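S.,

Sequence below, as promised.
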Amino acid sequence: MLVDSHCHLNFPDFENKIADVVRRASDMDVKYMQTICTKLGEFPQILDIANDYDNIWCSVGVHPNNVAEEELTNAEELIKLARDNKVIGIGETGLDYYYEHSPREKQQKSFREHLKASAETGLPVIVHTRDADDDTLRIMQEQYAIKQFTGLIHCFSTGSKLAYGAIELGMYISISGIVTFKKATALQEIVKELPIEKMLVETDAPYLAPTPHRGKTNEPGFTRHTAQFIAELKGVPYDEVAKKTTANFFELFSKAKP
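The prediction came back faster than expected:
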């Protein structure tokens, strides 16, 4: 059994298709998934999806690329929404200096408020980071020193400094289909050495479909391809990767009950 720890089932790619997507995922042994919030304005829709399925949970948060239009200046709003039984994570949040759709100062402020909400609620924070490793790690370390939190680096595709820095804070690393890409050799070398005890798997669907589905709409069921690739990369049985990453998910997202 596998868990897709990060997908976006409210996106237009899945409109009127969610039941079929969930069924296909189950056929691939992906039995549970978390659909991720990127805008608070979309949270009611995301929560409705989670409420429609026993095997789907959700998060609440504002993606760094969206903070210009949905500036988050107070953790209390997240804390309030996170009380729902179906909400198991805070985010996705973090820093994106690649696109910079939002000013860096606002991204950093929003990131800190998400970390505060995570520390206050005990729910894991889901961290997006792109071209911002140093600031991401620095802000996490500063907030952790104020009040401890837990969480993960989602869709990990960066350097080992951030990975091991996050692990030192007790966080997990979530691996997406990027690791299967032919040119992702540097990432593959890092993943090969990362401890499976700190690893989750995800799709980030509808984006980043793994080999052999590159160029197509990604689906939660494709988590299996990523898990199989990790098993080959690390030279361990696929069942071990599936069992451990699933256990890691429920250990981290402890509000979710299988």
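The radius of gyration is 17 Å.

Coffee later?
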